Amino acid sequence: MLRLIAVISMIADHAALLLIGYGIMSGLPVGSDAYERWNAIATGLRVLGRMAFPIFAWLIAEGYVRTRDWRKYAVRLALLALISEVPFDWVVFGRWGVTWGYQNTVFTLLLGLLALRGGDFLQERMGRIGYGAGSWYAAVTVATAAACVAALMIRSDYSWEGVVLIVLLYHTRADRRRQCVTGFLWSAMVWGLLLPTVFMAGYAAAFLLLYYLYDSGGENVVRAGAPVRHDKVLRWAVYLVYPVHLLILWGIYDRIFAV
């Protein structure tokens, strides 16, 4: 259910950006009644779209806990990020071509996963050589900082703020209420300064859904590596919906609006 909600909100966000923002509104006089009506529709869809990333970030944190093999998980994300880059650039920039100065969201999700693994790896190594309780903080800080620097260097969507959100959701997973409150406060603090205030409703809705729809029942503290059975076709369908929906949206835009 949560994954479906994230996918729907993501599609709504990208449709608003490309089809309404770059498409319909580009042909309307700024300030006209029609322009303002479409702007209100686009804003509503983009508010809905703010739900997507927090849910995907939460899924990465949960996925790391549950995956049998984090390496295969990382490889899948890396392949998805590479496959999605070209259609992502078409939709985000509204034109043909690849813009390597700005990378798609999956790169941020991948870096978040690597930050989690890096923190655990460093903690294990530091524990072996006799570091005390402070090794946890040092390990998490170093691994997260490295992933954040990488996100800034490649300029991935949601950037270092998204990496930190994934790390926060992972390390607060034992208490669902604290996890959701922490996630929302972080989102409001880092993105609330850059986006219209109304967009905060989307972030709030995401964490309310995480709080009320996710049946914890102890599942959110499952040990790392605990096996979870998934249908492989369904799993890959969920992965491929990201590049496929971008291609479909671009096809619609190119047919109707491109000149």
- Which structural class fits the helix and strand makeup? mainly alpha
- Sketch the topology as an H/E string, one letter per element: HHHHHHHHHH
Query: How many H/I helices?
Result: 10
What is the mean pLDDT? 87
How would you sum up the major sheet?
none
Low-confidence residue ranges? 216-229
What is the terminal separation in angstroms?
39 Å
- DSSP strand tally: 0
Q: Please state the overall shape, judged from the principal axes of the Cα atoms.
A: globular
Computed Rg: 19 Å
Specify the helix fraction band. Answer: over 70%
Beta-strand fraction estimate: under 5%
What does this molecule look like?
- The protein is built from ten helices and no strands.
- It has 259 residues and is an all-alpha fold.
- It is globular, with a radius of gyration of 19 Å.
